[in-house]
Amino acid sequence: MPSKAGQAPPILDFSAFYGNNAAAKQKLVNDVRDCCLHNGFFQITGHSVPLELQGRIMNWNKKFFDLPLEEKVKVGKDTTNTWNRGYEVLRSQILEPGTLPELKEGFYIGDEISTSHPYFINKKLNLGPNIWPNTSTLPDVGDFKATALEYYTKVVALAKDILKVLALTLDQKESWFDDFTDGAVATMRLLHYRTQPPDSPQKLTRGIGAHTDFGTITLLLQDKVAGLQVYDHATKEWLDVKPTTGALVVNLGNLMMRWSNDRYISNLHRVINVSGEERYSIPVFFSGNPDFVVECMPNCRKEGEEAKYKPITVEQAVLGGYADSYGRAEKFKKDAAEAARMSVAVAAPEVKAA
């Protein structure tokens, strides 16, 4: 059932993609198209990521963030490497301008590439080896690495299947995105959201601020605690995306919007955790081949009509999004530190000459 104005993103049975029932598959394509035209969000069940694996990676998500801060920062992405892998401390990002640094901490994981990989050598899209907790000093992390990479691999494969369906929704062959997905980059992010304090300024405090995703599609695994909200432009209200056991939330990113010349929506979403409980989630951001040039699809504009966006590489688009959001947080911290320094200076008593 496709979503309607004022209704949360629907749950679609993706198993039709793998079956032999042509009518069921066409219905799936039609429903996905309706969701993309409305708000770019839907949930899927009947996919290829086992429920048991979802449970294992979510358990490791919680175990990792339960580690003492001094252990987590040993695998910090800003202290151990320059390619965006490892632990990210609380309040590192501001995705929504005008809000406070966000009440989330994260752990970045990607494809397990070596320092001899061309992507690392050429510094493509901040790509490099993953950074893992040391099992000799932290035996409790056990098979964290193996589980994370197993889940990552399964979700990336599913993302490619979803892109086949998206190609059909845009009246292209299933294989239309194959060149784009060859050598594709994806980033998995384990996330832990603290509950917002009751006295926090509601208009400024976010688990994660209102934003659109930088890449092509995102697949999100939620735990049982809600908090994700999607903006409905028709009703001008925020809709809750209720966690559903076994389901993955799928949403379009900015590159898909560029590709479709705004026919499809890369929609605003945010996390506000006022549940009183800790929230955990695991998004996988599928970007694509870093060197692939994204430009308007041939059937997404009328003859003689100009494309709304200039061609751009995947790398340029994604890095631009990162620079903006992390830059806001750094500016906020510097401004706050300067304000504190000035406050101390003003409050200090005058020292008179002897």
From TrEMBL:
GO terms for molecular function: metal ion binding; oxidoreductase activity. It comes from the Eukaryota. PROSITE patterns: FE2OG_OXY. It holds the Pfam family DIOX_N. Residues 184-288 form the Fe2OG dioxygenase domain. Belongs to the iron/ascorbate-dependent oxidoreductase family. PANTHER family: 2-OXOGLUTARATE (2OG) AND FE(II)-DEPENDENT OXYGENASE SUPERFAMILY PROTEIN-RELATED. This is Clavaminate synthase-like protein. It comes from Zopfia rhizophila CBS 207.26.
